[in-house]
Amino acid sequence: MKIAIIGASGNAGTRILTEARRRGHEVTAIARHSGPNNGDTGVNWKTADLADPDAITAALAGHEVTILSVPFRTTDFDRALDGIRRSGVGRLLVVGGAASLEVAPGQVLLDTPDFPDFIKPEAEPARQALNRLREEGALDWTFLSPSMMFGPGERTGKFRLGTDTLLTAEDGQSHISYEDYAIALLDEVETPRHSRARFTVGY
Questions:
Q1: What is the pLDDT of residues 9-24, one digit of tens each?
Q2: What is the CA radius of gyration of the chain?
């Protein structure tokens, strides 16, 4: 499958790229700066900025799937969607945030009293991006929210999936590694189960 990853040089993006290549997919890795040349002929690095829809449109043309893995606080999401939409790639998977997940019926994590202020500049735009996708009529989108703690770790392949509720493990923590998140995302790329929907992954 021909997959384009926007933000392929980031923390999650590098793991998603590694997982996609592990499965034999042909990947175009898109970043604002040139990526590494490690001799992998299955990866084509392209330099393009989401702030330039024309450049994004050109970089994405001819692919089957786009994966968007970028910080929401610095992204004009409507402009990004415009470039993706005009590329003709109809399928979009977004690396989302956990803060818009429910922790009780009708209450999302972001709106709880103890939610850290320093995370809100990223968490609120992520929630707005999800709301914007829910109004999207052209793209077949999927928004994958990680658990609350999202960072480097092991590739275990052992995790749970949910929909709109924050997942908590037996140890009381809500966490997922970048590596296992990448597995869940590529599983969705290969076997779509959450068309025009959000889902979540955690231990």
A1: 999 999 999 999 999 9
A2: 16
